[in-house]
Design goal:
306 residues; globular; single chain; six-stranded parallel β-sheet; six-stranded mixed β-sheet; 12 strands; alpha/beta
Length: 306
């Protein structure tokens, strides 16, 4: 006879009601067996009501609603623009809530540092949702390659067609994505794969390409080098994701993955484990700060060279 698990569910509130919240985060949180979706906060009351009703929870709005949701939650997930997310993450940490953040944590180093320091000071767990670190297929591949020595070089290409002519993606309406481009939107994904496999970045060179495209050349602490191409404005026929590493054992290419909702459930699992054990996840607020430092340096270089 087995003993029933009496661990109470982790109460996670959701801040944000946009497409990412509707399509990925709310469904994943509501369906997770170890989680209670404790509420949804939105700037627009009607959007918060609609999303909360769809998933059987309570809606919050306004400044007082943020405080009420934090009080009703053990942790909060963010589906907000990065520079809205960052100060609210500080506020949540100070209220004792664990953090499940989207990437990038912020688009300024100061903003990301404030989050990392607040999480550390409050002793709350944090996870930054870099998709490939949490999708089962790709996270297993990353771990396999990280365990192998002798990588010589790598190539990562993440090109979306969000802003290509004729695109009807609802994510194209995101002002911060249009302003910051592929470097900030998909750059964290590529870096979150390359760093655990090849080591930290010790030197970075960046140059602007067509539209919002950015090219990076990275030298890693392992001695390997990598090249990265990032953008959201590629023609549809040119869009796609490719990451491969080459070394003494040959070539390895990252596999496909099932989708964002499955990956997000993996991030929820990671946060739950970090809360339970007190052991920080490698993709935490401190790692999110480091990603922001690298992206800010790349942006500065690309603009100066442009």
């Amino acid at each position: 006879m087995t003993t029933a698990d009496t661990t109470p569910p982790l109460r996670i509130g959701l801040l944000g009601t946009g497409p990412w919240a509707r399509n990925t985060q709310a469904p994943a949180l509501a369906a997770h067996p170890g989680v209670e979706l404790s509420g949804v906060w939105g700037r627009r009351a009607e959007a918060a009501d609609a999303l909360a009703t769809a998933h059987g929870t309570r809606a919050y709005t306004g400044e007082e609603g943020i405080d009420a949701l934090l009080e009703a939650s053990d942790a909060v997930a963010f589906a907000l623009p990065p520079d809205v997310q960052a100060p609210l993450a500080v506020r949540a940490a100070e209220a004792g809530c664990h953090l499940l953040m989207d990437k990038p944590v912020a688009t300024t180093v100061a903003g990301a540092r404030a989050v990392a320091e607040a999480a550390e000071k409050a002793s709350v767990a944090s996870v930054v949702f870099c998709t490939l670190r949490f999708a089962p297929e790709t996270s297993a591949w990353i771990a396999q390659q990280a365990a192998v020595d002798g990588w010589f070089t790598a190539r990562a290409q993440w090109l979306g067609s969000l802003y290509a002519a004729g695109s009807d993606s609802e994510y194209a309406d995101s002002p911060w994505r249009r302003d910051k481009g592929g470097l900030w939107d998909v750059g964290p994904h590529a870096l979150s794969v390359l760093i655990p496999v090849l080591g930290d970045v010790e030197h970075l060179t960046a140059a602007a390409g067509p539209a919002d495209t950015t090219h990076l050349i990275l030298r890693h602490t392992s001695g390997a080098s990598s090249t990265v191409t990032l953008g959201l404005s590629a023609p549809p026929g040119a869009a796609g994701v490719e990451i491969e590493v080459r070394g003494e054992r040959g070539t390895a290419s990252i596999p496909g993955w099932a989708g964002a909702e499955t990956a997000f459930r993996g991030a929820v699992d990671a946060l739950t484990e970090a809360v339970r054990t007190g052991v920080p996840h490698p993709c935490d607020a401190r790692f999110g700060l480091h990603l922001t430092e690298l992206l800010a340096a790349a942006e500065q270089q690309a603009q100066a060279a442009g």
